[in-house]
Amino acid sequence: MSNPFRLAPLAAAMACVCAHAEDAVTTASVATTPATQVAQVERIVVSASREATSLRATPAAVERIDDAMLDARRPSFIGQVLNTAPGVYITDLGNEQHNTSIRQPLSYQAVYLYLEDGLPIRPVGLFNHNALYELNLASAGAIEVIKGPASSLYGANSVGGAINLLTAAPGDSPELQLGIQRSNDGYTRAEFDASDSFGAHGLRVSGYLGQQRDGWQAHSDADKRSLSLRWYWQIAPQLRLKTVASYNYLDTDMPGSLNASDYASRPAFSPNSFTFRNVEAMRLSSELESRWRAESLSTLTAWWRDNSTDQLPSYLIFDTGASSASGRTTDQHFRSLGADLRHREDFARTLRLIGGVSLDHSPVDAREDNLAITRDPASGRYTGYRVVSARRDYDVTVQSAAAYLQGEWRPVRGFTLTAGARHDDIGYDYSNHLTPSATTGAASGSRDYSHTSPSIGAAWDATRTLNLYTRYSQGFTPPEVSSQYGGALATPNLRPAVFDNVEAGARWALPDRSLSAELTVYRLTGSDEILSYTIRPGVSEPRNAGSTRHVGVEFGSQARLGSFEAMFSGAWATHRYGDYRPSATLDFSGKDMPGAPRLLANAELAWVPDARWRIAVEGQHVGAYWMDNANTVRYDGHALAHLRASWREGSWEVFGRIANLFDARYAEIAASSYTGSGTRAPDKQDTYTPGAPRTVFVGLRYRFGGGAQEATTTQTAHADKAEVRS
Questions:
Q1: Is residue 103 scored above 90 in pLDDT?
Q2: DSSP secondary structure string, 345-372?
Q3: How many Å separate Cα 346 from the centre of its chain?
Q4: Fewer CB in 10 Å around end: N or C, the chain?
């Protein structure tokens, strides 16, 4: 890689304007502010600027799942809370596996960024659509979602959106939570959360053990272990160190998808008996924060990652005859070292600048083996396999360097301008340990990519209750390691795909937030998107040949009337190919993209008669969508209902939920594509990943203590206690 840490000049690219807010708001000031004051109900977010900021001063569509919602829902899967956010839909593919739709169709593409306390949990070029299972949900104090491109702050892949899990801060007095839940479907989960502060130190430890056995679907057992530690040390009045360590382990069977006949007649069937996914993800980060002047804040963050994914995946099994099939194992391991240096400076209470540099070094080892698989024609199950040969054996060193700058300017009270940009340099150094060929991959070499991502926006308090905003932002995705070195004699010469986003929104709330609503309209266009181009039957290569257009409306509202609480959210959108010609004879330009429902909606009505009881019913709607690029096969969509209830008495709580209350038959995702390999002609195959039938969960939780949490750092702790700009 030539000059991997080159940083292009940013001065010309980063015109910095931006908003200053008012004085810092602490928990105490919020609690004592009269109900008629906006400060009492101010919503604070940290992900949109990497600083705690009032949502009203944020010109972006940001959703915050706070600790109250996490506490009320007691989720065992992150989609159970994220799907309440307007325009956000996370499928449940079993045992925390998933894919995502935020301003994009349901897909497996690298158009999302998953963060923990503002740090990407994976390096660029190694996207995994399942990567939210590498987070510890038990450690969350809040979850924030930035919808639309956020590359000007976070870099590559934050195109459809970025999901940021904010770890809960230590409390200032001893507290302990223990919980257990079990379902009638063989799922058991035990979790804990303990915290205390002592002198200049604070510590929180949280985790859970999950186990799935003998579930409703064949070949679906799993084990999950998650553990997180967050420690802070107030070294001096102006100096603090925060350290977060996380360990996540998942060992799961992979039942796979079903053909149309099996989905209709036996949805609990799985053709697989040995497919698996084994994931181990460890992360360690330390953030040193210095408030060396009242107007300044400097932060140095260093991180380490160690991640391995070994699998024999169901999606890489291909029938080659009545009693035989082929398949592959894929093993990938990476380690990362990285650092981010950030500085914030305030000028005359009207201008704030936030800038920094970031470096990441991630060596990757990868291997694939070809398998010969036996199949029982009578039952349709794959019964055994043997390793035939090595298909891939290579390593890639991924190196990235970035510089970013964002300005916030408030020329008058209630009006905020923001502008910023980030320049990324990314390099892949690739070494092939096998003889180069069309299947073992190209000869060793290197590739460099660079991109500058701008963003500009404005937010305006039109009235005391109405906030308006607009934003232009750009996102990009460099070629993934898998597409760049996925198996071809020549390494393709690919460019990053670029996405331009324009949006405008309105946020309205009564002063006491007993009634609130939000609405966002957006247009997101992608160019130079990478697609698989068929040169001749059976031979294809990745090319920059695609463009897409995504247009939508996201909406949400909340109401509180007496002992009732109501919430409604959703999105209406179209996702279409602008230019998509995967071969000389196929042209899908102007077609709807597959896996793109026009309408997503979620609604909840809760009855809270007193502090002990909460009973809620939730409805979820996923609209119809095309299953193929040619728009010839359609999934009709589905509607689900869920019921939740909890009762608290002193330190004890009993809770339960019924998922899929009316036992609807539905698919988490449906697709139509061509299958077959070798000399066998490809066949059109409709596939469905069946959703779970009605499932009953019951649980018990014990709580001891619980005090106010530490005042937050810039990025990670409870934002309502941080220094904010409103």
A1: yes
A2: EEETTTEEEEEEEEEEEEEEEEEEEEEE
A3: 32
A4: N
